[in-house]
Amino acid sequence: LHSKITFGGMPFSGKPSSNSRKNFKGCMESINYNGNNITDLAKRKKLEPSNVGNLSFSCVEPHTVPVFFNATSYLEVPGRPSQDLFSVSFLFRTWNPNGLLVFSNFADGLGNVEIDINEGKVSVHINVTQVKKNRIDISS
Question: Which SUPFAM superfamilies does this entry report, sorted A to Z (predicted)?
Fold first, then answer.
């Protein structure tokens, strides 16, 4: 270690840059290193950051709207035709030990994916119709 530590990306002068990745763009909070709150020290100008670019000490929260479901309600969102990628992210809170969180059929009748809570644990079930072992289960 060259007595410097970098948070949020590599400095432009950093040597290990063979694939020219961009630096971090986003928000970090409460950066702690060896028991020191780096965020607080930088905010109080107790550190001398170098080449920090656009640095602010507040994270803008994305505007989210909580949605409440009862036992019979659900949200259906159309998929993307001709896409072979499935990506979903969400935060949830529930008092129910069992329930379905996400369900999606794959294109062309190839199967489906199901994410649920079973006895308080999140489970992922992938059902594929055209292979011998046609179900994959992952549980927390």
Answer: Concanavalin A-like lectins/glucanases
